[in-house]
Amino acid sequence: MNKEKLAEIIMAQAESDGEPVTKEEALEMAEMEIKAGNIPNYTETEKVKNKTRKSPTKDPIKVAIISALAEWIKTYSDVEEVEITNTQRKVEFILGDGVYELTLVKHRPSK
Fold first, then answer.
1. Taking the CA atoms of the chain, what radius of gyration do you get in angstroms?
2. Helix (H, G, I), strand (E, B) or coil at 14
3. Rounded to the nearest 5°, which phi and psi values hold at 86?
4. Which of 85, 110, 79 has the alpha carbon at shortest distance from 97?
């Protein structure tokens, strides 16, 4: 597209927007548009990273300990409602007026 045709298009757009421009201004804008078309655009779109989340592995030792603790707590005579809230981590139970919770934590080996 040559500069004069682009200037006419710019003048028509500016007039439709309610801000008319002179022929010289339109030619200057057209020249800048033509020059800008030759400049490569180095902007990049933001890359979306696909993060795959590892599913936690079940520790059979922790599961066995929690279930054994729950069974042992049930043998106590005043205990009511023993509930395993997390198979690898928590046991809740009611003893008398209080609600108790036991939490099992396995520490990572030091580096």
1. 37
2. helix
3. -145, 120
4. 79
**Residue 105: pLDDT band with limits 50, 70, 90:** very high
Q: pTM of the prediction? A: 0.50
Query: Which long-range CB contacts under 8 A does 51-58 form with residues at least 24 apart?
Result: 58/87, 58/88
* Greatest Cα pair distance in the chain: 98
Query: Averaged over 70-95, what is the pLDDT?
Result: 89
pLDDT above 90: residue 87: no
What number of H helices and E strands is found in the chain?
3, 3
Strands (E) in the chain, as ranges, are: 79-86, 90-95, 98-103
pLDDT tens digit sequence for 50-74 = 888 888 888 899 999 999 999 998 8
Rounded Cα distance between 69 and 41, Å, is 65
